[in-house]
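Example 3.2
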Amino acid sequence: MHMAKALKVVWICFLLGYATIILAQENLEIADDKLVINNILIQGNNVTQDRIIFRELVFSVGDTLPKMDLLPFLQRSKDNLLNLKLFNFVQFGVTHLGDSYIDVNIEVTERWYIWPVPILEYAGRNFSTFLKNKEWEKINYGLWLNWHNFTGRNDLLSAKIRLGYIKEYALAYSYPNLGKNQRHGLNAGFNMNQQNVVYLATRHNKPVEYRPMDTPTQVRFNAFTKYTYRRKHFTTHSMEVQYFDYQVTDSVAIVNPNYLGDGRDRLNYFVLAYNFNYDIRDSKIYPLEGFNVKIKAEQIGLGLISDFAYPAFRFTGVLMYHQKLANRLYFNNASKFRFGTEKQPPHLMNRGLGYREFMSAYEDYVLDGTDYLISKYNLKLELIKPSTFTVPFLGMKQFNKIHYALYFNVFADAGYVNSDFPDPTNTMVNTWQFSAGAGFDFVTYYDLVFRVDYAINRYGEHGFFIHVETPFARW
């Protein structure tokens, strides 16, 4: 009996010892497969506060993460920092300290933040129409001050004085990182512009200009305030209130009574809007991978505040999808639709495609309507990978290192604008429009994309078109 009990004790001790060895081995394997972030060190941010950079990282000091997740986490954090548009370059490095501990080193090259930019621009809808029509009288000039990172908190102070074809005076301030966790933001501002020529109507799918003897023809005042909430990294909610006030000369109301509606020479109203934005694209300037979903719901005209003859609810949705297909080969689709409940608004509020959004090879045209859908498909080949070049005679680090890339594109566009009460001459509405073409995109620093396309539309009209802008920034 004593021997049997002794054997049982020995057997139990053996099992416990074996289990301890197994557990110790498993813990050792887990520890070997994990990394612990001991510290995060930042260099190069002479203006930007550290907390602004920490806000964009998908990890923090003390976090434990699998080794296989380290590179994706670093790349995602790098993309987030570049998407702030505060830095020209961001570099990550890792120092191994032993016992699975690491330090993460971040080096940033800050942009030049104060831009007193001289304004010399074409006031038309796009640059391609200027190349075709050579309308030199539509040149604007003035000064636009954008002070990015105004206090080092990713805030923006903007002021504008524009003279020439369209006169504009504007002031705005944006502070997106309020609160201890930097989840809240506030924007506020106003702008007033006046112009001597207005697009009075649309005939034969083209805007009709009107220049009366008495000027200014139109004066517009707009004031806005906006609250944003960004809990983590990729989702942003916002609420916005805007006020619009339009005044036109008597002759405008006489020639086209529907310009502001019912022969009015003044129209003012409030807009209340909710915006949702989920964005996991690798870049907001020139994305190659990821997707973006935007939703906007707005009530135009708030009866409790002021009377408005054309109250409407308007819903807008945007979906952008970017995918790498193979080495240097990418595909993307960007689609946008809008639906409005007011089907007979004033001409000023009845803009569809050809203004903020336009189809390739339709730059000369506008399609007016309350509802629309536009979808763009693009297959692009990377001819020159993102590269850098240092200008030896420039001493300022904000400018002397330039990044650039070149892409060849094959694309197709489709669009549809609904108008319940179209002018008989505007034959492009209420029917599908198509275009296709090919071109080159040259991408460089400070958010510039130079695009040259050759495109043809469904009517056989074709030609070269030039655009200088950030793609889909106005979507």
